[in-house]
Each structure stands twice: as C-alpha cells, then as structure tokens.
Design goal:
single chain; about 170 residues; mainly alpha; Arc Repressor Mutant, subunit A; about 0% strand; flat
Length: about 170
C-alpha cells in the first residue's frame, strides 16, 4: 500500500513528477489526459514501491509503469467505444518508430567506441560524469566532450545532415 513507501522513495517520486508529466504529454497530446495519467502512475508507483529495487534505474521503472498504464487506458476506451467514436491519439506509426530505432542503432554503432561507452553511461544508464570518471579513469572534461560529439553526430545522422554531406 502507498503508506508503506519510504520517505526517500516518496521524495524521489515527487522530484520525478515534472519528468512524468512531460512523458504523459508526449503520450496523450492532451494536458488534461496527461495530468490524469501522471496521477494514475504516481499512485501505481507508490503502491508498487516495495517491488522497486534500490540502486536500479528509477526512471526506466517509472516509465514502464506509465507506458503500461497508457496502453491499459487505451484498451479500456476501445472496449467501450465504436471505431467511429475512438478518440484520436497522436502517436507515430509503429513502423516509423521501428525504422527510427533501427536508424538510431545503426548511427550509434558507427560512433567511435569511446563515444559509444560515454553516451551509454551518461545518457542511457543515467550515471553522473563523476561516477563514470571514477570507474573508467577518464577525465570528466573528456567524458563531456565525448558525449557532446556523440550527440552531435547522432543528431546529424538522424536529421539527414550527415547523408546530405556525404
């Protein structure tokens, strides 16, 4: 139950609410629906607090709860509406998502290994520059430079600038 969530967990969740609202807006494309989704997810997150393993990625765990709740909400609406009455949901086509992910993966694989490792640690694993620096022996400034160059290269390739220049 929500009362069993530790104060630390509750504080972490409260600090995370703005990020959750951003995700919810991206999913729903509607401020009111986004607020409802955040409220549902916050409640579910509190209720599931005992299943969260401290030290793991809170962001990914919470995001998964939100996506699952969003899908459940859509399925629930579908059960009660005719096809003509289905609310319009602004989500990109699944095929486009898969194509974009494949392109991103290929672009990521073309990055130099040091940039891949730095970007993975900082952006995907959400580790701090200091933590990565301590574990790899690489200077913080060097890590920041690698992450920046990796992001610029990925952005360029995903926007088509790299192909146009080639």
């Amino acid at each position: 139950m929500a009362g069993s969530a530790s104060r630390e967990f509750q504080d972490q969740l409260v600090d995370f609410l703005p990020r959750m609202r951003t995700w919810a807006l991206a999913l729903t494309r509607n401020a009111s629906a986004a607020d409802d989704l955040v409220q549902e997810v916050a409640l579910k997150t509190l209720m599931a607090s005992e299943s969260f393993i401290p030290g793991t990625n809170f962001s990914a765990w919470t995001h998964r709860i939100m996506v699952n709740q969003f899908i459940s909400n859509i399925r629930g609406q579908r059960e009660y509406n005719d096809l003509d009455q289905m609310p319009e949901i602004a989500l990109p086509a699944v095929q486009q998502d898969q194509t974009d992910l494949r392109e991103l993966d290929l672009a990521f694989q073309r990055l130099p290994k040091d940039q891949q490792e730095a970007l993975r640690s900082i952006a995907l694993e959400e580790r701090s520059y200091e933590e990565v620096s301590d574990s790899t022996g690489c200077a913080v400034g060097t890590l920041k430079s690698r992450v920046h160059r990796a992001r610029v290269q990925l952005r360029s390739e995903m926007s088509g600038e790299a192909r146009a220049a080639a």
